[in-house]
Description:
Blueprint: E1 17-18, H1 21-25, E2 45-48, E3 52-55, H2 65-86, H3 95-119, E4 131-134, E5 139-143, E6 149-153, E7 158-166, E8 170-180, E9 186-194, H4 204-220, H5 224-231, H6 245-253, H7 260-265, H8 267-283, H9 291-296, E10 307-308, H10 321-341, H11 345-348
Antiparallel strand pairs: 1-9, 2-3, 2-10, 3-4, 4-5, 5-6, 7-8, 8-9
Helix pairs in contact: 2-3, 2-8, 4-5, 6-8, 8-10
Amino acid sequence: MLSDYTGLGRNAYKVNRPLEQEEKTSRLSRDRRWTDEPPNDEALLIKINSTYLEMVDRWYWQKGQIQVFTLTAFLMLVGFSVALLFFPQGSDRGPGRWAFDIFFSLLFLGLAWAIWKGMRMEIFAYTHYPVRLNRKNRMVYAFRTDGTVIRAPWDDLFLHIGEGTVPTVGTTYDIRAHVLDDDGVTVKDTFTLAYPGFLTGKNDLPRLMRVGEYVRRYMEEPDGVKKNAEYSMLFNPVEGRREGLHWSLIRAFAPSSRYPWLQLLFSMIFSLFFLGRWLTMLTCKVPVWPEEIEEECKIEVDDPYRKDASNNPKFGFLEGPWLVICVLTGLAVLAWVLVKYSPLSLLFSG
Length: 350
């Protein structure tokens, strides 16, 4: 499992505390490059123009993955319950049997509650939590998970390389932004400013710094808008709406987009990610910026650097028919596995 939920749910960033020494050591300066490698947007953009840059959040790439694991746990729980129904119980209802029934009922309720808490990290929330950087008024806006918005001057943010932990990957990295109190030490609020497009377990830190440099260049360099707009070719079609079924499919299979044969080989796993992502998106609300922020972020009609999802290139066979073939193959394999090997197979047996 490569999902990284740093900053979300029980892993929420700690605030109302002093800066730690590790944060001070990893602080980033805005007035010099963060990497010598070319900047990269890692397909995080929603739109770019001469006024502002808008990106999706750090959890967007993995949206729906937790539903796969919670759904798997739920199916295992139901399957075990079904298996018990077929287990010979006899007519003895002595103390031992009652104790077992009570224990199993409590276990069932506890596991069901844990599964629900896991699902609630994503469902009935927001489709994404956008971050917007206004180059003209030097303000940064970031959606919180509760739907409120962080507003902070770009030049006042404390930026540093943050760390998280994923068991299958180890240490993960992000560029974290702290909003400090007037004393310059107390952390009032925190959000992720930049994150690698998805985790690979290799070269994630260099990839992160390329994304960070892309953001820094936009805000700090005189030709940052021009260079970023010319570089970026792909934008997430989520402004003011949920992503479509096709985009969910593209996103779910994206980790192996360079190797189509891997998409087919692991089609069952990617198909589960697709279903989890699509169902999650259906339950979520679309974030809407407050009117006063939209007023502060007006775009010039003749802006030559205005780009969004309407400028996306046309997708070819590998982004369309091939992914449909992969997802249908994956779902077919999944159905066969469930019928053949899971406890639910008892329902289909003679």
